[in-house]
Amino acid sequence: MQQIGPPIESLNRRLLDTPPEFLEAPHIGASGRVHVAALVNDLLTRLGHRASESVLSRFTSRDAKADGNRLQLVAMLCWLMSDEWFTSVKLELPALLTVLDGSAEELAKSTPVARFQTDPDRREELARVVLARLDRRPEGETLAQATDRLASLSVVERRRLLEASRAAEARARAIREALAKKAAEESADKWSRE
Questions:
Q1: What are the residue boundaries of the structural domains of the chain, listed by start?
Q2: Which branch of life, at top level (predicted)?
Q3: Which tens digits make up the pLDDT trace of 13-25?
Q4: Is 3 strand, coil or helix?
């Protein structure tokens, strides 16, 4: 989050004002109306990129139960990222796809899409996750403030921090065990020489 992004309030407002068409059921199989791959293609074109068929295929599905919430969230993200601020800066395609594909999947696993519009904390979480994945922080916030606020709001970030903490503890435990084993071996060597 090294670079400055838009004010968080403007993104929250945009999410609150998401048109109902973007919140309709995604087209999956024979049901739903919103063709999410087309929205992604339009967004990427607007942001100066071209999407390959393989990229766009990640935004289609045949399983409404498994992918409905994720695709609906991607549609909402397309609305959010069509904001004037996003079109005024040059954002790299891999970062955009990280938001539209990876972040949407993570967030959709923990929260129904409707809450990202109706719940103020979930709305702010979504806006902050998008900015963080684009290496931006809200205008008017320091890096520490933006990081703390994201960690306090985001279920995904808390899970990520918890997993990182567990991994660090496991590494520390492995190092302690290896050091204890080495000390025991050195002690045994020393004892056998005497």
A1: 3-153, 165-194
A2: Bacteria
A3: 999 999 999 999 9
A4: strand
